[in-house]
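Ops channel
N.P.: pipeline sanity check, posting one input/output pair.
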């Protein structure tokens, strides 16, 4: 009679693992389909951020969770604004930033691509939102000190990053289409 229901716990674990793999494939499918729709992804994340902010404001707590979230987002932002290969650290054979006017133009390649940046921020806000439902994460703290400390960290970190951008002459933002400085060829017809 032992073999009637399968192997018991082993069969149940295998079924759960198969179900988890199927759900992971479906999740990855929809994640892949969302890749070209950056504006809609960021709008969805903004809605999630707003829900989190409203929850923290309504509860009047979870400031340490919010502070940790802010530090994590600052870390992600630095990765998003930094080049893949830091010219200060190493000289590689791969694509590097042009440092002289005579250097060939090479596109800016981020250390943390936009999609991974969005995905990490969205996951972080989801985790922080779930943490607001557990009182053990609501550590009593005087939040203005955390806010001031975070603003000082933000200022100093961004100042260092902007000085790095100025030193190595790169802009990590895609402002528009790159336009060639050469004039286009004109064709004259002679009768």
């Amino acid at each position: 009679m032992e073999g009637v229901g399968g192997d018991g716990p082993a069969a149940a674990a295998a079924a759960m693992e198969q179900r988890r793999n199927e759900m992971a494939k479906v999740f990855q499918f929809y994640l892949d389909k969302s890749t070209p729709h950056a504006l809609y992804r960021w709008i969805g994340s903004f809605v999630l951020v707003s829900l989190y902010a409203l929850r923290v404001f309504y509860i009047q707590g979870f400031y340490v969770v919010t502070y940790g979230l802010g530090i994590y987002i600052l870390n992600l932002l630095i990765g998003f604004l930094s080049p893949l290969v830091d010219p200060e650290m190493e000289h590689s054979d791969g694509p590097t930033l042009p440092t002289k006017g005579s250097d060939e133009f090479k596109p800016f390649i981020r250390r943390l691509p936009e999609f991974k940046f969005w995905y990490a921020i969205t996951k972080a806000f989801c985790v922080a939102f779930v943490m607001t439902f557990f009182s053990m994460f609501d550590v009593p703290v005087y939040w203005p000190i955390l806010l001031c400390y975070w603003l000082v960290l933000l200022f100093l970190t961004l100042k260092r990053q902007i000085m790095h951008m100025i030193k190595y002459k790169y802009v990590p933002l895609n402002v528009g289409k790159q336009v060639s400085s050469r004039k286009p060829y004109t064709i004259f017809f002679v009768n």
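N.P.: looks fine end to end. The mean pLDDT is 84.
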